[in-house]
Structures are given as C-alpha cells and as structure tokens.
Design a protein that fits this description.
The complex is a heterodimer of chains A (313) and B (454). With 313 residues, chain A is mainly α. Chain A has twelve helices and four strands. In chain A, strands 1-2 form a two-stranded antiparallel ribbon. Chain B is an alpha/beta fold and 454 residues long. Chain B contains 20 helices and twelve strands. In chain B, strand 1, helix 2 and strand 2 form a beta-alpha-beta unit. In chain B, helix 19 packs antiparallel against helix 20. The chains are: A mainly alpha (313), B alpha/beta (454). The interface between A and B is large, with 58 and 50 residues.
C-alpha cells in the first residue's frame, strides 16, 4: 500500500496495482509549478517580504542608515500619545467616506443616464468625456486645479469676485481644503465607477424593464425597484475599490497642499511617508502602517459581512 | 513516482526559499554602505580616514558614479566638468545620475534613501541641508587632506568665502567643497517704483520703510491687481525675517529649538499682517509662483536669490534691481550652499577627488555665473564681467554674505523643516496665533531633538 496523488492533488491510499502517476502527470505537475512560480515570487518579493519587514521594523528604532534597534512595544505605545495621528485619521476617514459616497453615487447616476438610447457617437463622446479624467495622472490635474482654485490668483475666485462673491480659500482655508480635495477626487474618479456600472447594467435582462413598462412603472420606480437592486453586487464592488483607494490617498494632497494648512489635508499615507522618508523614523512609520493595514482589513471584512443584507446576487 | 513528485515539490520550494532568503538578507541594509563597486565599507567613526591627494596614473581604468541635482542647463555644466575630467583620465567611466529640482530637503532625503539602499555614489552634490545628517552617519569623507596637500585645494580655499567653507565644516573637518550658493535679497521692479515716485530702497532700510513701499506699490483690482510684495513662503525665504530681528529658529549650533523666543513670533506676526492687515501680498499657497508674478509685473517686490535671475532674463524682463533684506534691529540674511562631497564608502576616493576638482574649478564657477541660476562661490569669478552682467547690482549677491547666516540645517533637517512649516501655515491661515503656533512648534521640535539624543 502506498500514498498516491490524484490529478486534483487529493492524497489517496492505493495499492501497487492501482494506477500510478505516469510521466505525463509529472511533467504536467512540474509545468504547473513553473507557471505559478513567477506569480508566487512576485507575491513573496513585493508583498510577503515587505509585510514581514514591516512587522519586524515596527518593533525597532530604525533610521535607515543605522542598524535597527529593538525597542519592544515603544512604537505602538507612542501611537496612543500622538495627537497629530488622531487628526490625520479623522481627515482620512472623512475623505474616504464622502469621496466614496459621491464617486459611487455620481458614477451610478451617470451610468444610468448613459445607458439610455443615445446615438452611438453621443454615447461614446459622453463616456469618453466622463472617463478621461480617470486616465490623466494626478500630477497634471493637481497643477491645473491649483491654478483654478488659488485664493488670490485663481480663475474661479476671479469670476466669483465678478459676481460679487468674495474670494474663497479653496485650498488655503483649513475648513474648506479637504472638501475641495473631495470635489477634485470625485471629478477625477467617478468616471471609473460609471464604466463599472455600465458593464453591470448590461447584465440586467431587458425582460424586467419590459415587464415594468407593461405594469406602468415610471422611470424612477424602474430605477429604484429593478436597476439599483440588480446592481447591488456592482455597487459593493465599487464601494470596496473606492474605499481602498480613498483610504490610501496621497498624490493630490502631496502635490497641492502638502498636507496643509497645518494638518488639515494630511492623509494617513502622507503621515506614514513623512515619518518614514522625511523623519527617517521607519520603526514608528511601520507601526502606524501595521495598524492601518489591520484597520483596512477589518473595514473590508465588515463590508463583505454586512453586504449579505443588501446585496442581491 | 511519488518520490519524483516529492522531488519536484522540494526543488520548487527550495528555489523559492533560497530566493526569498537572499532577498531578505540583501534587502535589509543594516548600516553597511556599499560603494558603486559593491564593496562593503561599514565604518566606525574612529576609523574614518582622512583623505589626501596622491599621484594618480593618467591611464587608470575605473568607474565613478556621480549624483547631481539641477535643471537641464546645469546638467550640461556637469557634463562639461566630466568631459574635462575625461581629458585627463580617459579610461575612467563616469556615470552621472541627475535629479531634477525639487526642494533641497527632498533631494537630501532622496540621497539618504539611496545610500541606505546600498547604491551610494562616489561623488555627490549635496546642499547644506543634508550635510549634518550625512556627516553624523559617517557617509561623507573629510576633505581636509586633499585640500591641504593638493595645490588645487589650497587655491580653492584662498578664493572661496570663509562663511561658505564654514557651512560645510563640522567638528573642524571640511566635508564638502562649495560650488554654488544663494542668499536672500529683495528684488524690486524699478519701473513700478519710479511710477509711484519711490526712490531705490537704501541698503539699511527698515521693516517699516519696506511696509510703506509695499503699501504704496499695491494697487489695482482683479486681473489688473499689482501686489506690493511677493512673500517667499518657504523655509529659506522666511528665515531672513528672523535674522533681521536678531533671532533664529534654532540655537547657534543647530541642536535645540529657539522657537519660543518672542522675537520669532513677533517676526511671524509681521509676516502674517502683510497678508491680512496691510494686504500687500497674496495668501501663500503652493501654486502662487511669486517669481513668475514678479516677472509679469504683478508683484512690485519679491524676496529671492540669484536662482531667479536666469528666468527674468529669459522672459526679457530687465526692469529690476536688488537690495538687502530690510532690518528690524538685526541685519543680514540667510544663505544656502551646495557642494560636492566624496562618499566615505567610495573605493575610488583619489580619482573622485580629481573629478571634484573640476566641479570646484574656476571654469565651472564661471559657467555657473554665466547661467544665472546660483551665485558662484569664488571671489575671482564675482569680480569678472561674466557675473557682473547678470544684474546692475550683481555683486550684492556676494557681499550680502557678510553678516549672513547659513540656513539652519540640523541633523534632522527634514523633520525640523516639516514641523516649522506646518506651524507656519497654521499662522498664515489663521488657525493659530503666532505665539501659540510657535509655542506648539517649540514643544514638538524640542521633543524631536530629545529623541535624537536617545
């Protein structure tokens, strides 16, 4: 009696009389391992090892030029006395919450509007127009927005002044700056949600709409009773994608305001970057990163768990 | 057959494990720095050797890596220096890695990350902002041996202002050869001053006189608005307000915060009031390019250095002159200086010194003077027509060094700058009063310095 592998990898007990793996099976298994090897290597190099390094470094004092010194839980204890971190977390959560809501909502509305019978040329034009900002780098759009929304030299305030409205500190007023960032993010990113929703809309059978029409339902009722419920898996997908992206927002804040005024537009990733690559306190940056990772994982798990109540597959 | 399957599995897992472990060990830099030649050169402070000039074989064959920051024109300058070096040493292959301008602080951070990753170059262009950190980590090689034993080194010392050499001297050792610098002065539009009937400001003008000029020069509305002054709202641009008040952000040896000095808050209150009370300057924002606005005659005065001169010439804007920073009990301004250093980890220090001499040469300094993006460091070049034709009063860029103070550049420069600038923006956006913001900044900075000593 001996152990033997089936094609599916299940271990079975067999006798010598039973079929054993032939040369073809071995070649196939080897090929399989070789095919997945690059993916696993990439995963190990770019995900697993850095992750292990972050865990290790979070228990050390490390300035990247000297050897790391073990400091136990000091970095984690410091987190609880870091008053700046709290305001940075609030900024990040505020940004993520409203950016996700508006991106998904506006993306959904645009998709429903563009899913109507339009001439192909008009349909392509609008899809391109709304999607174009998505493919343009934040490095470009941020500079344009800086010029548009500058308080004393910007174009927007110039026209507001012409109609008697005083200049607003779009990026210079701490109370307004983060909201302007959300506005900019929605302008830039809602086109992506629109495209995903358009794909989702193609999967809704036309018969449902025909039945609604026969029953005399109006457009709003059809949207709320048919379109939105059947799009809930796509809505969940968009929420998760946007939530992950928005929680890790970095580029526009770093380019436009560098986190200011004060800390009013500083995001978690900016804060981690500041400690890691400007203050060279890699240990503390790693500790924050680790807690941030755990928080995002819990949030994503909650999203999946609660989705059973409102997502209709 | 089962044994063959096991073998395949073991082989695959072994490959993965070996690669993973090799990456883990090579990726974790634990303080040892590798030169371009890959030789580990961990150095204890006591083992850091003094470098000195030696005679080199002209046909020596080796490689040098150089890191330099600047714009495209400055890249041409660096290429020119390397070309001249290769005329003397044709078999030395020099690889120039060029960084486009960010801030000197960001550039310093990048260099430190580069060194930490084990990719330290042999020769490096580094500003004063990064010198103390690199010196404290024994990354830079002292140059005193070369400077004293090589006639070219002695000639440099005799021709370069002492304050620039002092900026790169730590614990009595010189770590960089200055190649260019910038100090802060006030640029003013001669045409706009004339239109308002204002004479050229005097060298010893005061803050009150400056404010009076700014108010008189501020006029118009909307797209016709002309601001009296363009506030340089970056670290090096704010420091002159402190120096001319007789104070600074840090103590003299840059090891402790001085932000609790009431003169600091008082100076910042004056700066704040330029925006909100006298309204002679726009609210500082990242995108408000005060130098373009000055060139476009939308600002009558602006605080800046030699680095803006080239742009003014290129835009055919010539109605300007410069004057010292206005005084308020103290005199002077701040300066930042860039230099070339040899990395302690370099295996080719002697040949790197030969290349460094090209960057520190009179010809290189003259090329800097001709470009107008920084002030040359040599007195002999300042006296030349090449430099004098940059501005009617060009020599002031050099003479302003007298009594000037180097930009505060502590070991933890990036951290210090980030703390100071964050609290500065709180003042400039009315989140906090100047005394409150500076009290908070002082506490934060004091904690940061205390951590360094742990």
């Amino acid at each position: 009696m001996q152990h033997e592998l089936e094609r599916g990898g299940r271990v079975i007990l067999s006798t010598n009389k039973q079929r054993s793996l032939n040369k073809y099976d071995v070649t196939e298994a080897t090929a399989g391992y070789l095919f997945i090897l690059p993916t696993y290597l990439c995963y190990i190099i770019f995900v697993l090892l850095p992750f292990i390094a972050v865990i290790f470094l979070s228990f050390t004092k490390y300035d990247i030029l000297s050897a790391p010194k073990f400091v136990g839980l000091d970095n984690f204890i410091e987190i609880f006395s870091d008053t700046r971190l709290l305001s940075v977390i609030i900024n990040t959560v505020y940004f993520a919450t409203f950016a996700v809501i508006f991106n998904v909502l506006i993306g959904l509305i645009l998709a429903i509007m563009l899913n109507r019978r339009l001439s192909p040329a008009l349909s392509y034009f609008f899809r391109l127009a709304y999607f174009l900002p998505v493919i343009v780098s934040y490095a470009y759009t941020s500079i344009i927005w800086q010029w548009l929304f500058s308080k004393d030299t910007g174009v927007v305030n110039y026209y507001l002044n012409l109609i008697g409205i005083p200049s607003l500190g779009w990026f210079a007023d701490p109370k307004l700056a983060l909201n302007t960032m959300i506005f900019m993010d929605v302008w830039k990113a809602c086109g992506f949600a629109m495209v995903i929703f358009l794909a989702g809309l193609q999967n809704i059978p036309k018969e449902y709409y025909e039945a609604c029409e026969i029953d005399g339902a109006n457009a709003m009722q059809t949207t709320l009773k048919i379109t939105v419920p059947l799009l809930t898996p796509t809505i969940l997908l968009n929420i998760i994608i946007y939530m992950l992206g928005c929680l890790q927002i970095f580029d526009p804040m770093n380019i436009i305001t560098q986190g200011g005024p004060g800390d009013s537009t500083r995001s978690m990733v900016m804060y981690i970057y500041e400690y890691g690559f400007q203050r060279f306190q890699m240990g503390y940056a790693s500790a924050i990163s680790l807690l941030f990772l755990i928080a995002i994982s819990i949030l994503t798990a909650i999203q999946f768990k609660t989705s059973k109540r409102w997502v209709h597959y | 057959m089962k044994s063959r399957i096991k073998v395949v599995k073991v082989v695959c897992l072994s490959i993965v494990a070996v690669i993973a472990l090799s990456i883990l060990f090579t990726g974790c830099n634990t303080g040892s720095n590798k030169s371009s030649t890959g030789v580990s050169t961990t150095q204890e402070p006591s083992k850091t050797q003094e470098t000195s000039a030696t005679s080199l074989d002209k046909n020596i064959s080796t490689k040098l890596n150089v890191q330099y920051m600047g714009n495209e024109s400055q890249k041409e300058l660096a290429d020119g220096a390397i070309k001249k070096f290769n005329e003397r040493f044709p078999n030395v292959k020099v690889t120039l890695t060029f960084s486009t301008p960010t801030t000197w602080g960001q550039y310093s951070d990048k260099i430190i990350a580069l060194v930490a990753s084990g990719n330290a170059p042999d020769l490096i262009h580094i500003p004063i902002e990064g010198t103390r950190l690199m010196q404290s980590k024994d990354i830079l090689a002292p140059l005193d041996g070369y400077m004293s034993s090589d006639p070219a080194g002695k000639e440099m010392i005799s021709d370069i202002d002492k304050s620039l050499l002092d900026a790169f001297t730590v614990d009595g050792k010189l770590y960089e050869v200055p190649i260019d610098f910038n100090d802060m002065v006030i640029f003013y539009n001669t045409k706009l001053l004339k239109e308002e009937g204002l004479p050229a400001p005097k060298a010893n003008w005061t803050w009150n006189e400056f404010l009076d000029y700014s108010k008189k020069l501020t006029k118009g509305e909307g797209d016709k608005k002309v601001w009296g002054f363009g506030l340089p709202a970056f670290h090096a641009g704010i420091i002159p307000w402190f120096i001319t008040s007789g104070t600074n952000t840090l103590n003299a040896d840059w090891t402790a915060s001085n932000l609790n000095d009431p003169k600091v808050a008082s100076a910042l209150q004056f700066v704040h009031d330029l925006v909100y009370v006298s309204k002679v300057t726009p609210q500082p924002e990242q995108n408000v390019d005060i130098y373009n606005l000055f060139g476009a005659e939308r600002m009558a005065m602006v605080g800046g250095g030699m680095w803006i001169v080239n742009n003014l010439h290129q835009n055919n804007f010539e109605d300007w002159d410069i004057v010292q920073w206005p005084q308020n009990g103290g005199i002077g301004t701040d300066f930042g200086v860039g230099g070339m250093a040899i990395m302690a980890a370099s295996k080719n220090k002697d040949i790197a010194w030969e290349l460094l001499k090209e960057f520190g040469s009179k010809e290189f300094d003259q090329a800097i003077a001709a470009m107008g993006t920084a002030t040359p460091v040599r007195r002999s070049v300042i006296a030349s027509d090449v430099f004098k034709k940059q501005a009617a009063n060009a020599e002031l860029f050099y003479t302003a060094l007298e009594g000037a103070t180097a930009i505060p550049s502590p070991v933890n420069y990036s951290e210090y700058e980030s703390i100071f600038m964050r609290h500065f923006t709180e003042i400039m956006t009315n989140q906090k009063s100047a005394p409150d913001a500076m009290a908070d900044a002082h506490k934060e900075l004091t904690d940061a310095f205390a951590k360094l000593k742990k």
